Prior knowledge:
Layout: H1 2-17, E1 27-30, H2 37-51, E2 60-63, H3 70-79, E3 86-91, H4 92-99, E4 111-127, H5 135-144, E5 150-153, H6 160-171, E6 181-184, H7 188-196, E7 202-206, H8 207-215, E8 219-224, E9 249-257, H9 262-277, H10 279-288, E10 291-296, H11 298-318
Parallel strand pairs: 1-2, 1-3, 5-6, 5-7
Antiparallel strand pairs: 3-9, 4-7, 4-8, 4-9, 4-10
Amino acid sequence: xxxxxxxxxxxxxxxxLGVSGIALAxxxxxxxxxxxxxxxTCRQIGKVMYDIxxxxxxxxxxxxxxxxxxxxxxxxxxxxxxxxxxxxxxxSATTTRLAQNAYAGMTADQVRxxxxxxxxxxxxxxxxxxxxxxxxxxxxxxxANPGGVAFAGGSAVGGFDHLKALMVMQRAGVDDITKVKxxxxxxxxxxxxxxxxxxxxxxxxxxxxxxxxxxxxxxRVLAVLTEERVPGFDDIPTAKEQGIDVVAVNWRGLxxxxxxxxxxxxxxxxxxxxxxxxxxxxKVMVDNGLAPFTKVGDDFQSYIDGIVAEVRTMSQKxxxxx
Length: 322
């Protein structure tokens, strides 16, 4: 009986650790359905990590949609706080929602932000048949009739896509940005479809969401919201070039449970840095319109602390939150 019990315990240990004595495949939670930006982050970073042998088994990806990332965030904090093999896809939308208390009282300091290795540039998009040929044309139309130009976006009202449109219009001199019309859709693809069909006049989103539609000729990108033009898309002007000083990028990165050790935090930061330095990741960035944006470890955590405070202040000024 004792031998049988010992055998069961040994087999259980092997299942947990794997025959080589190391943990089974690490897991990346994408806090959305397949096909979105968080899903892209998990699958692409996980694939490159495995391809360059930063991890020795393919990454397991779990899609956990709900509450704009809040379901996954709560799951990690409440149930997986010490899981050293867990990473979670995050972006500017994550910190925006945390800054705006959209996760029912949960705060950014309940997890550890491990790094970002690329930024999805913000874009202002119109359909191929749109009468707007430049960002200036669009701004003039909004100034003339704010309610007559509807922006579509994949974030909720007050979310990052909404804030991008408001930032552009505010810095362009629109007197009352609360009159700028914004319609929220479940995802960037839905927002694009409405814009292509002419049901909305413009779309604000991320470059990775629009690349396929851009290549097919269904849309035009009036402006990219970066410091410089995006490699691979050099014909698209920045908003800054057009006189609107707005930089709004959706960084692509990861957070991990807060209860893990400093060594685990450093391990994931090192793995992420290896991905950032690889030729494989550089190709992923070019193919998907990502701009370089590498911050890992403590440097990234400090950046997050600052951005959460900044977004909270900006949201209050815009009237998005009290």
